[in-house]
Design a protein that fits this description.
six-stranded antiparallel barrel; 161 residues; alpha+beta
Length: 161
Amino acid sequence: MSKHAAAAAQEIRPIAENRRASMRYTVDEVIEVGIVLQGSEVKSLRGGRMELGDAYGTVREGQLVLMNAYIPPYAFATVGRHDEKRPRKLLAHRAEIDRIDGKISQRGYTLIALKAYFRGARVKLELGLAKHKDNADRREEIKRREGDREARAAIKRHSQR
């Protein structure tokens, strides 16, 4: 494989991102997994159409599964149209699945979908092991952001004198 072909194989092209995840959850760990898709789903994803807002991962019968991810139907598909919100199998190593299952079931973690992207020709998904933020944490974060914004504005005003 030439250098150019190897670089093209590792090129990352974003499909979708869950922007609300950082507001609602504190993400402790990020995991990259593969996803099993049908042909019409891949064609729809190549058009950059996917919604991860309500998507989450779970372990069912020893398999990692993505729930509630919306992939709209591909308009030009004639045979084998897919169900938009069907559960989709995720690909990860057995030890990683067991570790994730332990954290989800015992420690109050949730497995949320953060990003979907193409790495070369393959669709990859970033999952986050996260804990839900309560209202006090959210208010604290908003105060910190506003304080940072005000500090930057004060520095900018001071440097313009």
